[in-house]
Amino acid sequence: MSRQLLTNATVVLADEVRQKLAVLIEDGKIAALDPEGAGDATVIDLKDHTLMPGMIDLHCDSLEKEVEPRPGVHFAFDFACAQADKRNASAGITTVFHALSFANREFGVRNNETAAALGRAIHAWQAHALIDNKFHARFEVTDVTAPPVLSGLMEAGAIDMISFMDHSPGQGQFRDVESFRNYLANAYKADDATLDVIVKQKAEAAKGAVERMQQLAKLAHANGVAIASHDDDSATKVELVRDLGATVSEFPINLETAQAARSHGIATLFGAPNILRGKSQSGNMRALDAVLAGVADCLCGDYSPASLLPATFKLPEVADISLAHAVLLVTRNPARAAGLYDRGEIAVGKRADLVAVQRVGGLPHADQVWSRGKLVLGASRVQH
After folding, report:
1. % the chain with pLDDT above 90
2. Contact residues for 372 (Cβ-Cβ < 8 A; gap 6+)
């Protein structure tokens, strides 16, 4: 692989921002910062750009929409994986955890058979991919049929992260039965009879949820799979997932729960769309409030990977934090939470996953993206 010297950029390091710091890439890694000589390296002038580590998205739902962009309209999995790969690269994301739900046909395209096949397709496509695509399996803990499927996938090395989610009415995202029914009715056009069945089944299945979580957590540890928890709503819930070995608390719904997660060494994760929109889709804690309170460790793309970069650059303006701090929320912090210590910062020896950002019309855009030192995106803007 050719040697490349990136020059004249504003470079975001883990603890500071440096002007015109040269970065040498060699053999897919960062070989040196401000080297005295670069020999035969190809020089790339990044004047007017900010150079930052490639972003790491631990929770991205958009692949499901690539498969089913409209209800009942489906594309082939390889096509969907290819489109998601390109969209993430263009957003400045160099490692993405595609979140696929195992919920026993409860949520439309989100069912065990489809999720398992799509998860395998993620790994199959990786041989052709621009960036690093990983499989985040979201287990609905009231699904009694999913554990054997998930166990087989983990033993086959197909899953990179597993999260435990519970959409039972009365806790987490759905504070009462009515909010749960409204969500299903609006999102999946379920009729009253279908909703009655789902609510009753969830109440019955909840009785064995903890045992299923313990079984899968044990298998995850044995296979090097990272563990996350979803929509935590209390310190008690945090203590439960801590005992399971969770390293990520996704979308804690209030300040007290976020504080409890961090006190146990569990990284908190909030949605970047929440930062841009200024509110939570479900009416829970605002991501900005979490940042202001100092309890936000990571941001994710959630349902809009394109929101990750502008949310990161917006934070210094609205949260009184440095750009270096904001960038940590989408790079080193999520990398460490997922056990990926080879990436997430611009430092000698780390993977050369990098993004050159330029503001256009006030918005930050990923103009050039490197994955393992290979240029996978190179935008050239038309001059008018």
Report:
1. 78
2. 28, 351, 352, 353
